[in-house]
Amino acid sequence: MSTVTTGPQDRPPTVAHTVVASLLGHGVDRVFCVAGESYLPALDALYDTPAIDVVTCRHEGSAAFMALADAKLTGRAGVCLVSRGPGAANAAVGVHAAAEDGSPLVLVVGQVPVDEADREAFQAMDLGRQFGGTAKAVWTLQDPASAAEFTARAIRVAESGTPGPVVLGVPEDVWAAADPVGVPSRARATGPAVPDAEGLRRIRELLAAARRPLLLAGAGLEGAEGRAVLRAVAERHRLPVVTSNKHQHLLANRHPSYAGHLHNATQADQLAALDRADLVLAVGTRLDTSTTKRRRFPAPDPAHPQPLVHIHPDPGRIGLFHRPEAGFAADPVAFLRELATWPASGADRLDWREELHSLEVRKAVWQPVEAGDGVVFGAVPAALDELTDGEVTVVVDSGTFTSWVYRYLRFGERGRLLGISSSSMGFAVGGAVSAALRTEGTPVVAVVGDGGFLMNGGELMTACSLDLPVVYIVSNNGSYGTIRAHQDRTFPNRTIATDLANPDFARLAESFGALGLTARTPADVRPVLAKALAHGGPAVVEVRTSLRHLSPYRRPTESEDRA
After folding, report:
1. Contact 171, 111 (CB under 8 A)
2. 55: CB partners within 8 A, 6+ apart
3. Are 220 and 75 in contact (CB under 8 A)?
4. What are the CA-CA distances from residue 327 to residues 287, 307, 341 (Å)?
5. Under DSSP, is residue 321 helix (H, G, I), strand (E, B) or coil?
6. Cα torsion for 443, 243, 448, 76, to the nearest 10°?
7. Separation of alpha carbons 78 and 484, rounded Å
8. What does pTM read for this prediction?
9. pLDDT by residue (tens digit) across 169-227?
């Protein structure tokens, strides 16, 4: 058996070299990290491996978010390297987000030396207890001969079934140990699975009988091929398409089959229209809580069900909360490729498709709203839509401002929405770095609140150090706006802990080396955004945003208007 190493040939291969070479063999071309002494040999092996780009981050939480964003953009496991104890604890927010999203993430943690385990060592952490309830698997590599095996298992488990996070601990002294095998692992080809002939026959019967079918598209259709075949099937069978949470871009929003985006603020009138569907084809979605509006759609009531066909790679998700007429653990793209070969159908569904699409068309028309306390944020996505025609990658953070984005920005054929289901604040700052590193031909814009930006604002320096063309739009209303809205509703006139004191974000950006701009009035919004988009490097646009108009769906109260 030959020995393979990525390091200098006068050194024996180490576990670090085998792990890094195995990552490369599985298609990993970028990792995100905050350097730590407990995995220095891995960094040294990466020094010898220029095919893997190393992105130096300012906080482990951001590094994990960046790796998660990279996974969403590539369809492969994102990889984050952190040190023991505090490093792993900081990265936990990304592990949680990956689990909530069903996105593949491998968190590699440098651990205390083997002989210090379970002996109250400095910065020691029991990874199993810390991550066992969140990650799909938590392992510690202790046998140097198993380095390639553990790396392959971590990636395979992260990417298979319903994807998710895997945590791999490697003790400090194991990294530097000689690997007696020295043969890195590599990806193995697997063929796509599709329903069997009987299953396809049943689905064809259900589709033929439906007069108001609906195709619900999810994360399993990410990528150019998935988007192309989704459009082909929608056109061939005259199917309206609604997308799962944070996947608004899967079908161009101006396409006549686009029927909306299921998210936390999807409105009652749109849900009522979707409730009239007499068949739901859920393809590539887990039917998660946000998408299904807390499991009320598709209608789960056995007495009045909405017939459901569910296609998802993980058999454990089929029938978990909803009872499908037909459910198959299958490759979503391969399934749609099969549907694209069936005879064209649905000439009698055109009115149904038009009804659902027209709801989207009407609500996407921005009608300017004046407010005495700042810019009503709908003006921002409306201007962004006009300036880019929806050909833009938008990374959203957590906050009520996202509702304006979903409503007034219509994604085009190459547009992309990037966000996380956990609604963890701070994702967009680093996530936009990942997007800018992967995206060509379309601008990258992060939309983040004043609270979220300052949670992980240090990653603006990462964007500046790499001179990335990313625009950060900071919605500054001086408040944790989402919580403020809940607080005002539950405890009126008893505001506490939700007001924020903020810096001048434009001047702060300039101190980092970015372009800093401010929009104080609605008239400022379009020219300021145009200047930021044309800049060609990192830019921060602070929008002094109305607090009284928090979302398209919340009007100020009479007392607020009088204030």
Report:
1. yes
2. 30, 31, 32, 33, 63, 66, 433, 437, 462, 466
3. no
4. 12, 11, 20
5. coil
6. -70
7. 34
8. 0.93
9. 999 999 999 999 989 999 877 777 888 999 999 999 999 999 999 999 999 999 999 99
